[in-house]
Please model this.
Amino acid sequence: MSNVVDGEIFKVQQRKSAVDTIIETIRDLLLTKQLKRGDRLPNEIELTKKLSTSRGSVREAMKILSAYGIIEIKRGNGTFISHSMNNRLFDHLVFQMILSDVDKKMLTELRELIELGIVKIVIANATDEDLRLIQAAHSRMADSVNRADVDPKSMTDLDLGFHLAIGRAARNELIRKVYEVTLDLFSPSIEKTHMRPDNSRNALRNHEAILAGLVARDQSRTEAAVRESITQWAILSS
Model:
């Protein structure tokens, strides 16, 4: 005898809200290049008609897109697609990552994935000036360590400064932004590793090894240095 299928599985799925639909429409138009940076959007009344929705829904969607930095609302002039990527767009990703139920293993894998990928691109794209700026960031951290100026917060800022210089050296705005988001996520655990002066010296040595690999444009050498750095961070920040 056949089982009777529960009729509940045939429930009509809840439809997306009008606000979500408007936001997804803007997203899709951007993805297909029908909307581009600097384009002026139709006014509120026109959007209401074109999207067959209410002015309240359009207004709410525009507020959300503005908060994400997707659009710029210029009073008396109109609403425009932003000219450049805005950090507010990536702040949403940071909050999502913070709220996710992740463990140390997942965080370590994320950091390894991003940092191994980024040094590969740096080796391919970085100019001599980019490498000089990474060297300068390393030197600033070395000066503080050698002066025993190892306040954990200051050392964390210097440590992150080295990584930020590497991100810029990739010469890819998307990669740089994603890397900066990742560094925001790891900042508290990096600060934890600088609670002891010896750990700051170890971090400096790891940076020196990474820098040497980048300057030599030696991928295997740089990747080995990155892995060692991440391994020590994972142990010391536990």
Notes: The chain is about 70% helix and 5% strand. Residues 131 and 215 are 7 Å apart (CA to CA). The first helix runs from residue 18 to 31.
